[in-house]
Amino acid sequence: MRLRTEMPALSGITEWVNGEVNKNDLASKPVLVHFWSISCGMCKESLPEINKMREAYPDLQIVGIHMPRSEKDTNIVAVKETIAKYELQHAQGIDNEHNVVDAFQNEFVPAFYLFDREGVLRHRSAGEKALSMLKKPLERVLQAEATTS
């Protein structure tokens, strides 16, 4: 997915946890879409940071998308147990058929897609340093949000 493109629909999710969201629900808000997997160690390490981010930036809408990397990762009970274990309170889409993954053209976990309040992609990062690379773009998007509110 290229920068400055519009957020794709969040449709075709196998099951939602912590409430279902769609693209229209996220209109006029900065949004962080976070792809992760239960079989990804780096993903699990980043989950507490995502919770801190949710608390630190209440104007940011965070949506988690669980992206299975193997057949074992499609176990919905195991995904829900991980969501509970890490106390993820924001919406989590379990994307067992890769519908959202494909719409975002995402290949990696963890991966982060940051959209501004117009729904335009402003930053994307993936892998080990993805979370640290997100900090400055996130501050820019939220600062722009504060000046237009």
Automatic annotation (TrEMBL):
Keywords: Disulfide bond. One of its GO terms (molecular function) is oxidoreductase activity. The keyword Disulfide bond applies. InterPro entries: AhpC/TSA (IPR000866), Thioredoxin-like_sf (IPR036249), Thioredoxin_domain (IPR013766), Thioredoxin_ResA/DsbE_sf (IPR050553). This is Redoxin domain-containing protein. Residues 1-143 form the Thioredoxin domain. It comes from the Bacteria. The lineage of its organism: Bacteria, Bacillati, Bacillota, Bacilli, Bacillales. It holds the Pfam family AhpC-TSA. Signal peptide: none annotated.
